[in-house]
Amino acid sequence: MKRQPVYFLSHGGGPWPYMDGPMRTHFALMERALQDIPRQLPHPPVAVLVVSGHWEEQDFTVSSSPRPGMEYDYYGFPPETYRIRYPAPGSPQLAARVQQLLGAAGWPVAADPQRGFDHGTFSMMQPIYPQADVLVVQLSLKTSMDPAEHLAAGRALAPLRDEGILIIGSGQSYHNLRLWNPAGAQPAAAFDAWLRASLLGTTPAERDAALLEWEHAPAARLAHPREDHLIPLMVAAGAAGEDPAIAIYGERFMGSLAVSSFRFGAGHAIGPFDLLSGDPGHVAGL
Predict the structure, then answer these.
(1) Beta 6-10 vs 257-264: how paired, if at all?
(2) In the chain, what are the domain boundaries?
(3) How far is 52 from 169, CA to CA, in rounded Å?
(4) Using CA atoms, how far apart are residues 99 and 72, in angstroms rounded to an integer?
(5) How far apart are CA 123 and CA 118, in angstroms?
């Protein structure tokens, strides 16, 4: 079985794949990039492990229900978006394997049979597997938000890739809701440029060193006042091991905010979904 790549994906806002009209239109390029992911894989995944930026626990915690429910962790959306379902099955077996791997690495790990899919999972998975016919398990972040801990956890989970498991860190490369407007353009571009310079064309050691010091990046705390949407990248980078990164999606979202997604490891060529491509240290204008 060929090794699966690892992804860090910007998942967008709220339940956008279930909506129509102007909001859905804003996500057109992101949606196309997500829809392309199954084609990039060496084979269909046995299951998907999502490290969600919308789930935090004191200790790493894995969802273990065979039939996960839903977590409507957003507000201000139309009433029908609080009735949607992403009916993918869970996998107690994968949950137990995650506990085994993290436990062997010295982490206390809990299982939560009640945890449902949050929008960091279902809004991302809907475009990737709209039939909801792939097993999906969620892994929480630790409330410590320690980059080193999450990189190490990713390294512990890396064997899953050779077992057919697709690991996805689900967050957002820029996440400042108070500057989710043209005022955020400059910090988003500065941080995205640093992120690309740190991930693309660097050695794994250089990449990890940069991620450990992410708070010193240009506009770091303007791009991420709270790092919950960045820390899933640390798990993905840890699981990537020696594999290089490529950008699979990038645009100035809503015309102003630089947002990106990345793949670590081999896969089929991507489509034209990265409008910010070019020199990895520079975010090109559109």
Answers:
(1) antiparallel
(2) 6-264
(3) 6
(4) 26
(5) 8
Average pLDDT for residues 256-271, to the nearest whole number? 92
Distance CA 188, CA 194 (A): 10
Q: Is pLDDT above 80 for 105?
A: yes
Say how far apart CA 9 and CA 17 lie, in whole Å.
15
This model's pTM is above 0.70: yes
Q: What is the pLDDT of residues 111-126, one digit of tens each?
A: 999 999 999 999 999 9
* H or E segment and range at residue 127: helix 119-128
- Estimate to the nearest angstrom the gap between the alpha carbon of 215 and the chain centroid: 19
From the list 235, 264, 240, 213, the residue with the least C-alpha distance to 60 is: 235
Q: Label residue 137 by pLDDT band (50, 70, 90).
A: very high
CATH architecture of the domain 6-264 equals 3-Layer(aba) Sandwich (3.40)
Structure tokens that stand for 92 in this block: 């107690």
Q: Is the dihedral of CA 248, 118, 85, 80 positive or negative?
A: negative
Q: What is the DSSP string of 23-34?
A: HHHHTHHHHHHH
pLDDT digits (tens, 9 = 90+) for 36-62: 999 999 999 999 999 999 999 999 999
